[in-house]
Amino acid sequence: MSFSRRTPSRPNLSRRGFLGLVGATGAAAALASCGLGGVAGQTADLLPSRAPLPKPFRVPLPIPPVKRPTRSDGTTDYYEIVQQAGVAEILPGLRTPILGYDGIFPGPTLVTRSGRRTVVRHRNELPVPVAVHLHGGHTPADSDGYPTDLLLPVKGWKPPAHQGHGGSSMLGRVTKGERDYVYPMRQRAATLWYHDHRMDFTGPQVYRGLAGFHLVHDDEEAALPLPEGDRDIPLMICDRSFEADGAFRYPSLDRTLQSTPGVLADYMEGILGDVILVNGAPWPELEVEAARYRFRILNASNARRYRLALTPAPNEGPGFVQVGADGGLLERPVEHDAIEIAPAERFDVVVDFSAYKPGTEVTLTNGLGGGQTSQVMRFRVTRKVKDDSRVPDRLSRIERLDPAKAVRTREWHFRRGAPQGDPSGIGGSNVHWTINNKDFDPKRMDAAPKLGQIEIWRFISDLHHPVHIHLDPFQVIKRGGGAPGVYDAGWKDTVDVRPAEYVDVAVRFTDYRGAYMLHCHNLEHEDMAMMAAYETV
Ligand code: C2O
Ligand code: CU
Ligand code: CU
Asked: What is the CATH T-level fold of the domain 71-222, as seen in this structure?
């Protein structure tokens, strides 16, 4: 199958020339945020669907099924997930082949208790290697889904001659068929998610469906009067494009995902779909009672950023009361009329629909979209009910990582790579993104932070780069030289670094020694080498 190539909004060479200037000019932020690919607020390019787009608000919001353990003992819950090909009806009347955990998209939701060991046996019945990463998990290195720790297909797999960025050092701890991922779950209640992390192919494999929620609960959270049960709902938001036959449209150089990594050069900045899915359904609708709901919002898009708001806004009070971030409950709730969310970030919010009259239709809109992507889903308020839930003024106690106690500052520069070799810019090492001017090499450790010590990590960017650190969460202490932004509260594991900006975070690794990574969570950037490894010692 071939893809028609979109005419670039400007020739590649002048883009590169322009980018060379970005770090140096004061006007860079304004220019870059207009988007080199022409989409405001995004570092990515729109890939239009070839199938007719469905009408919004025609399908109910699906809730991914909660996975039951196959057995439990005094300390541990055991789960089994089979990664397999499946078919979903996402656009009405069309069949979309997916790669799915248990063959579904999103995958089943795992729900575990803080402190209870969770062992997930993954069996790979897909035709491609995988690596499973629990995003936000405080996980020993050998279960963290390091991108070269491949779980090969049950039916076997031969590494092709061309192996992407890592060359012959591509293979790590490789297992065939099935393996256990062990999660001690020594961490607080939080909204985590699991997704594929295969070296060079994370973008297309997540795009085809390999993503699911993993919720961790604890006693502190359970004691709060927040909405719960049917009124505690995970929302996985992501964008996709579709071929005329209903297949996901993605501009891979190798559609079989066997050997050549990367995407067509026009899409190396990232891929924006024109259909917005929530929990796998296009622009769904949810009936809600006039009561408080807790929504665990995850941006599982490859590259798209959103600015979420409620339209109409409530007559009084804020649209959203944020109660949690990537790493769990905030100390105190934060009110927002809109929420800006970059790929992989989570916002745990409470929406009070009693501020609306029964019968009102409330749209979750996206201020960073255009046309149909400026809508996400719709809530229909049904009736007044009794509601005992509330949002207390104090949610949790959060230990502050004191920057004055930091033992060092490390700088991490996130930049587009300089052209190497092939001037056409298609394929090969020319299409890449760098950290500290280097492509990812799974064998090279770029830092050796000591367990228990606080460090300041400074992320410096040319364009939009949602930066994620594995193993332990961090706290944002500075943005652009000033105070943290309104979306930076609490424990974070992914931070939205915007064009020509720097963000300082305080991080402290604990418990587990080994190789971990930090990377850009724009999955096209990640696949095109924007990762770095560090070894905790
Ligand atoms: Cu969600 Cu290393 O990734
Ligand atoms: Cu992660
Ligand atoms: Cu990036």
From this structure: Immunoglobulin-like (2.60.40)
